[in-house]
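Batch manifest line 1390
LIGAND: thiamine diphosphate
JOB: complex structure
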Amino acid sequence: MALMRMRQAVLKALDDAMAADGDVVLMGEDIGDAGGAFKCTEGLIGKYGRDRVIDTPISEMGFMGAAVGAAICGLKPVVEMMFIEFAGVALDQLTTEAATMRYLSRGRLTVPMVMRASAGAGQGFACQHSQMLDHWFRGTPGLKVCVPSGARTAYGLLRAAIDDPDPVIVLEPRILYGEREEFDGDPAFRIALGSAEITRPGRDATLVTAGAMLKVALAAADKTNADVEVIDMLSLAPWDRKTVAASVARTGRLITLEEAPAGTGWGGDVVAAITSDAFGALKAPPHRITLPDAPIPYSGALEKLYLPDPEYVTAQIDALVRNGRAPAAWWKEAS
Amino acid sequence: MALMRMRQAVLKALDDAMAADGDVVLMGEDIGDAGGAFKCTEGLIGKYGRDRVIDTPISEMGFMGAAVGAAICGLKPVVEMMFIEFAGVALDQLTTEAATMRYLSRGRLTVPMVMRASAGAGQGFACQHSQMLDHWFRGTPGLKVCVPSGARTAYGLLRAAIDDPDPVIVLEPRILYGEREEFDGDPAFRIALGSAEITRPGRDATLVTAGAMLKVALAAADKTNADVEVIDMLSLAPWDRKTVAASVARTGRLITLEEAPAGTGWGGDVVAAITSDAFGALKAPPHRITLPDAPIPYSGALEKLYLPDPEYVTAQIDALVRNGRAPAAWWKEAS
Amino acid sequence: MTLANFNAPVARREALDSRREQLARMMEIRAVEERIQRLYSEGEIRGSTHLANGQEAVAVGVARATRADDVVTCTYRGHGHALALGATPLQVIAEICGRESGAAGGVGGSMHLMEPSVGLLPTFAIVGAGLPVACGAALAARTRGTDNIAVAIFGDGSTNIGAFHESMNFAAIRRLPMLFVCENNLYGEYTRIEKSTPVTDLAVRAASYAMPSAIVDGQDVDAVAEAVATAAARARAGDGPTFIEMKTYRYSGHSRSDPATYRPAGELAEWQKRDPIDILAARLVGEGAIGSGEVADLRAATAAGIEEAAQAALASAHPSPDAILSHVTAASPGESNRWNFWSKSTSGGRPTGTPPSATR
Amino acid sequence: MTLANFNAPVARREALDSRREQLARMMEIRAVEERIQRLYSEGEIRGSTHLANGQEAVAVGVARATRADDVVTCTYRGHGHALALGATPLQVIAEICGRESGAAGGVGGSMHLMEPSVGLLPTFAIVGAGLPVACGAALAARTRGTDNIAVAIFGDGSTNIGAFHESMNFAAIRRLPMLFVCENNLYGEYTRIEKSTPVTDLAVRAASYAMPSAIVDGQDVDAVAEAVATAAARARAGDGPTFIEMKTYRYSGHSRSDPATYRPAGELAEWQKRDPIDILAARLVGEGAIGSGEVADLRAATAAGIEEAAQAALASAHPSPDAILSHVTAASPGESNRWNFWSKSTSGGRPTGTPPSATR
Ligand SMILES: Cc1ncc(C[n+]2csc(CCOP(=O)(O)OP(=O)(O)O)c2C)c(N)n1
Ligand SMILES: Cc1ncc(C[n+]2csc(CCOP(=O)(O)OP(=O)(O)O)c2C)c(N)n1
Ligand SMILES: [Mg+2]
Ligand SMILES: [Mg+2]
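JOB STATUS: finished
ARTIFACT:
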């Protein structure tokens, strides 16, 4: 099997979807002639033309809304949001318009669009270009949110998102664009939205994570003495409650590893739901590993400290499994 | 003690704050000559003039940003967002600019502004004018979020928000504007941001709620045979973990009553944190009572079904206390 | 409860070819708005409702000069547009009263009317939100190779929001087949235009996008229709968008029980002298298209019809509780009945075999 | 590490009164940008960085024609403006290299430079975001009764975003004491202006707000300064905002290693013929303000100074881990040192007893 970079998988997913369905169009800033700020649309304008690969002005509210209207009228727009933070100037069209269109029209008007955005930390883009921000969308009735963790899942989720008859947000961890992974590029490959994957089976604890944190989770699972089951959420809304609950029923311990401060992370909802589902099986309190309640620093030295690394996660898992209680987060000890 | 409507308490808080501090200015649509869509600023333009009560064009991003700039430069702007949904066209200025200003400037530039918005359901404003949407802000490092539950708390929180040296979002449940409550209007009265109130003490279960749901919670607590402690969160970010944890340590049971679908409600984070803090004390799995995963319907008949009422909440509490397990949400049985 | 017949909205739209029907439709809009005002006082309407009496000529003029398979986005002040485009009085009144027979099955209310069969998307409750969506509809029309156009209708106050600017620019740079129809009724909520907007003629704003524009007497349905027809022809021909400013006036306050005391004394009376219904009625009498005695009869008949529709709406069922959870996503309960715009296989865009929503 | 002296930024701003210093500052900006490009290649810079070489005249012209206690918002393409306004090369380079001695203590990086003592708010990384904030600063100046102004600086591409429109309208309707300075460098990222914007002269957009405007040769620092001075005087006098379009060009690509292959052949060379530094140098030589042999010396001396600053930046400390959790809210760790704009008790707006940040 060939190694593929995540950006290549995204590009292939878009290319395959456009080839398969003439209604799929792309919209975004510099996605055409320039091939995208992260080169995820390179070459597509030459292949599919300016009517299907649409370079937009710097007008996120405008082109997000245009995608909504185009979707209602029979196209399947895939919008590229260069950095997810820019959705802060366009939120209304997704959370208020796209999300309610099917409901308000009693099924007559639907919005089969995708917004894919680069997201996440780790590369020194500083606090206004490094967040995941899934909480702006996650849980909004009518919207789906997913997060790939590499080339294979990027392909499978993006194709599923484009196939989906409703609006879907795909948050692509920017730091993974250049990472390579084995993936055969099968154009039929899909990952059902709403389903998680058990990436690594284990018996002592369930470590639930997503996106760029998957690698950290797997490294920590390798390091710890405990036998850790790692689940890649893939979809944050809806999320795969069955798979997580079944895992925790087996392991008796639930740990989340989230690339977000606790107040915005997806883990709260997950922990609450699973605690309810698997209360009797819990051998220790569920535990969330999150980012501190602070913006993301630019300095490389600081950003490295800011983000959880395998050592830190290992220590948290070890303590939870050994003592039935995880130590306080590093910033709570520190302050 | 006199009865005061919540809208009067908001007006008095603004009036008192403006009288006490010449730097406090108001901005918003139709807040001046018209006195505000919900009459929370009535008469203030006559008293304080057009430079301090600023009627804005329909330009939420523009005037939200103007409030940020004015706050940096020494004013204390209080922005009225007529319906919280309109923040969907202005989010960037709060979550990305205001929230990071102090951090980026290493404390040199600060944003002592308030955004107060009407929010919540129950009056037939339909799905785009009836949400709480605290999840757009809650947990964002640098932002505070609070929700009053009546005249007294509206006054105490709003004054505290205006006093606060950082950006604060006050979500005023629209349905309570006309409700009357005993409040003496003491201009020194404040409710510390981040602190909850135990509205009703009890021993069998802790029912945590906020805003317009408080009334429902209290009615349910009266109805049920269990002895329920009701906590009014008041602040959603930061929230009063100590008070809630101490209560659950006593009662052994935690129930949240949230005016939001589960995926966006504040209860996930609360349940996860408290489960961690009070795991040993839990006699039953924590339980969340939320709205269904659907937009808010216009029809009065439907909106009444959509929102939790005291009977429904009572049944959930009863079951949890009696059987150690709450029944599924009504829509899960139904579907 | 099937007052409207199978093709009612499309037929109603096409009926606007008749001069007499144009007048009757304007009277109908007026009567509906007045009835809604009363229904509000009677406690039958929740939330908010925004009337457009006084602006009937814009609604009928736009509807008459466009096609049933064009797409229209407009605002919460959309009762008149819905009726002009073809939605039935029952659909409109029932929706505003939250009934299942309403245009949105009762889940939307006054701010969210719609009728896909005549191109009306759910009316937009967020100021400015309909403009980018109309751009997208126009984009889809062009990409799919049809000669359809999109029409964005919005108020004067909405020209101060960012989405207006972004949409005008986007439409201009891509030469989208669409119309920007601004109903300049001089007020945004309780604020007169000069307090929020430093220019008097909003049409000057089109120059920022090198977009052609026109200023039109919005009280004259023929002037409206002519300007719209010209711009529509240009759009269909591939020559891009046009901005049309309709000078008009709302007789009522902004919403609900707003008494509009902020208006200068005499302003309303001045505008009422150029009432759009009177103007057309006089013209038709002059043309001999209608007898002078018939005008009052038509008005009375229209009012009676609306009263009937109002009674039917009030007598009709509230939505079933199932409606709460239906149609949230494709996986939710609820019959799948997506409207296929411009589908090649059917006329009027209605996909074969799908029962049109207008018959509920 | 205290290369900058106590009052360095304000003194540097005031030094721009000298013609020679204007030239030196433009050379300094050029040298800093070139050094940053190399630092990027050397792996010393994370994320992204956006150079403004070629646009030096706008930066120095604006800085020279405004006061140190005015407020400026500008964008990620802000190195030149920061230096022109008074931030030191060490502050700028150190920030971009993530050092504690940087303008934001190393937590902000290239996109978030700032120096409150000369009015520069943290540069805005979100397109359009600085414009409303500048409106607010202007509003505060007026409300607080000072004669200060605010200056919003942004690119051509930014005139297509909603915040631009809303800010222009808001400033015009309230006659705010401010300037909108648009650096029209013909590109927004990799897109040439005619692909995103249907008008060539962005100044025409001011007419939408009945706002006065000017089109200025942005390569001529004197033309820039004159236009800014005129508009600033008008703003200070209470006569409202002005939109100024600076026709300019960025020599580098949009960011980082963008080779800018999308530019038509010869375009760069054509602009380089009117290099802003050369234009001013020739003028000063002509005026006799500087000897013709001195120009090269000044350039060399500047380059040497910048190399020293770069070495000092690289040799300086990384921020301490405490910086991660400090200054999130007032309750966070970190010395309270709020900048008080226009406080009556101190000069230059610096509150008594507060150590200025520039000395770190
Ligand atoms: C983004 C947003 N801001 C504010 C509102 C509240 N609002 C509803 S209607 C309205 C006035 C709109 O005025 P105009 O565009 O002139 O339309 P008109 O009501 O006169 O038809 C306002 C401010 C809203 N719905 N959406
Ligand atoms: C809201 C938003 N959209 C997109 C971007 C990405 N972006 C950064 S710079 C830029 C181009 C801006 O062009 P212009 O305004 O001409 O400024 P210049 O870079 O030429 O100085 C874009 C699109 C952003 N930072 N913010
Ligand atoms: Mg209006
Ligand atoms: Mg540019």
